[in-house]
Amino acid sequence: MFTPHGNHLIAGAWAPGDTRFHSAPASGPSHQFSVGRVSDVTAAAEAAEDAFASYGSTSRAERAAFLNAIADEIEARAEDITAIGTQETGLPEARLQGEHGRTTGQLRLFADHILKGDYLDRRYDAALPDRAPLPRPDLRMMQRPLGPVAVFGASNFPLAFSTAGGDTAAALAAGCPVVVKGHSAHPGTGEIVAEAILAAITRCGIHPGVFSLIQGGNREVGAALVQHPLIKAVGFTGSLAGGRALFDLCAARPEPIPFFGELGSVNPMFILDAALANRGTEIATGWAASLTMGAGQFCTNPGIAVLRAGAEADRFIDTATAALSAVAPQTMLTEGIASAYQDGQRRVAATAGVRELLTTSCNTRTAAPYLYVTEARTWLDNEILAEEVFGPLGLVITADSDAEMLEIARALQGQLTCTLHLDDGDTAQGQALLPVLARKAGRVLANGFPTGVEVSDTMVHGGPYPASTNFGATSVGTLSIRRFLRPVCYQNIPAALLPEDLRQG
Ligand code: NAP
């Protein structure tokens, strides 16, 4: 059984802090963890910069072996990781096991991806010495790693979006050392995963500054990390408020750096007329299941359903209400998240023109579903109803016409996902909506629910603000490596000086 010691991991050594904070697990014993200090940030960032001198020039094969070794070391600790992860987050064991597979799977996917070499986007303009009026030099371009990257994981994915999650895997694959700011909701899970990364560092003979974990316990440490001059980019998954605060700090630095924040989203679903008539009850039941999965604590949770008012809509609402009322309260990730859920629910309930369909009771760390309905005009007139409520809360919006549905689509803020439910008779309305929704979201989908995010070459998990702070990027899938690379053109550089990957013509 793993018992955390609570220290930071800085450049290969476990370092205690001056003060400790207590973890607040959903079950099991609380442990003490070192509170991160600005001096820890400095030590980790300097070690990362040291490591970059060698790690930034490792071969793709060496980095692939390192990523695979991290996956092996995580697998070797699977049972302990699941045990402490379940205790700290309150998520069920099966969820932790699934996330474990996703985490090791994405490390191995990045290993395969860099071995193929396409991500380097190598380009070559051969020299044209005889060109008139001016000769052209030998020009070669490839993507190079940025340097040390700071990573902030989210509370709701203690493995796949945390210490060795997608951001860390993408940065290490690119050739960037990583400094993780540990999430205070799962510090023990962070520690055991850091232990696995350290074992892989030792096994592969990599510079130990390539990875550090600084536990949280205060907000100062995160702010210091994004402002440290040696940090060259930030990968963040979490709340809009936290992400925006850190994004602003990055932009205000003397040398501004990119901040890749994956934030919140309400993930609207548009249920078109024929689909509603043919499959309304099936969609309502599927929606209830998607909305309550993991206590609704998914960034892709479909919080809003838009459909045409009428008898079919009433049937949809009745089915969804019945399905949601059968869902028992679930433990939330932290008391803070449970209390924010209650605040969000009160905000929706207090809006004039919103009717409550299902109300439930929750304690200080549980959430049960809420369901509300409102008309399109009320939603359009109340910006507050477009904000994410993190948890299993659903809002049905009834529209009177196709035009009103389109107006809702146009009024949406940036989203991670937008969904269409459509059948044969819905093609024209679908054709009108899809281009609008594709402007709003990183992923548009039909006849499904957005909660499952495939980790693959084509996945885009991002979108216009506030879904993310950078609409050109994704935080899931192989394309996410681009965030930690920048193009460098090598002009007339002798072969002996060129990076290995650029030597062939
Ligand atoms: P969070 O409260 O924003 O925390 C994320 C991390 O940022 C934590 O390490 C936190 O430190 C730190 N942090 C937050 N505000 C800060 C500030 N002002 N200064 C310095 N550090 C700060 O988010 P969360 O509770 O983990 O996640 C829930 C939210 O994330 C939901 O809104 C959800 O929709 C969103 N989310 C988005 C995605 C996505 O892919 N877009 C995925 C999952 C979740 P502490 O450890 O001290 O709290």
From TrEMBL:
Entry keywords, A to Z: Oxidoreductase
Per the UniProt record, one Pfam family is Aldedh
Supply the InterPro entries for this chain: Ald_DH/histidinol_DH, Ald_DH_N, Aldehyde_DH_dom, Aldehyde_DH_Superfamily, ALDH_KGSADH
Residue ranges of domain Aldehyde dehydrogenase in the record: 32-456
Top-level taxon of the source organism: Bacteria
Q: Which residues form the signal peptide?
A: none
Name of this protein: Aldehyde dehydrogenase (NADP(+))
Organism this protein belongs to: Leisingera daeponensis
Organism lineage reads as: Bacteria, Pseudomonadati, Pseudomonadota, Alphaproteobacteria, Rhodobacterales
